[in-house]
Structure formats: C-alpha cells, structure tokens
Amino acid sequence: xxxxxxxxxxxKEIDTIIRDTIDKVLVLRFGRAMDALxxxxxxxxxxxxxxxxxxxxxxxxxxxxxxxxxxxxxxxITLIPSTVFFFNAHHMKMDSGTADHTKWxxxxxxxxxxxxxxEAIYRGAMKGKLIVNCPLPPERIPKYQLLYKDV
Length: 151
Hints:
Protein name: Thioredoxin-like protein 4B
GO biological process, one term: mRNA splicing, via spliceosome
CATH class: Alpha Beta
Structural class: alpha/beta
Family: Belongs to the DIM1 family.
Shape: globular
Main location: nucleus
CATH architecture: 3-Layer(aba) Sandwich
Keywords: Cell cycle, mRNA processing, mRNA splicing, Nucleus
C-alpha cells in the first residue's frame, strides 16, 4: 500500500513538506517499505488518508535512504514503524502513556484509531497546544520495551 502514499527519500523533500504544510497535520511514517509492521501501518494510512484529507497530509519516509539520516537521528528512530506529527512546521507531541511523547511507535490497531489520533492532534494544534493527550484507551496503544545500556 505504500505506493498509494508519497514516499520521501531526501532531506530536502522532508524539509519542504514540513515547511509547506499549512493548517494541516503532517503525518510522517518512518520505516521500510518491505517491513511487515510497516506494511500493516501503510495499509491503515492509505485507507485513512482520504478521510483525514481535510485536516491532515500523510507521507512515508524511507529510513534506509542515506540522505534522511539526519531526521532518523534527530527523532531517535530506533524502532519501526515510528510516526511523527507536525502542524505548521511545529513538531507535535502526544502523551500516550508511553515513555516517548515525540512519536508514535508501532502500527495502529485499526483505521479509526489513526483517525482519532490525528483529529486529537489537529484540535489541540488549533488551540495552540504542542502536546496533546492520546484519545485511545491504553489497550489499543502499542507496547514496546525501551532498552537502556549503562555507559
């Protein structure tokens, strides 16, 4: 399904889409086109993109592209898929009860979950908030373990 959505492979393309998306939520999925979990998320994003088109744009970022590594490092993309949200070039954060508020890690369980999250981010952004609460119940938020190494 990734062929239905815009795929970004260059830093300049990402810079441009972040800068030029005005009064809409920009959803950037960082991942690989051939990863099973990314394909599941891409299917949900593609099916939802028309439903959220009035208040959101969706694009995919190929993390294997050498030119986008600056974003991969900046957003600490270590688990894929990871989804980052922007509004008017501002990075939007979401408190979903996980340790990381800067991105959504994993796939959404269903199409409506994605729509609810994007709508919550849009409503919060329209009120001037840079962090919003996740509208999903805890059982529908992906769980993952963060591994920390002692240095």
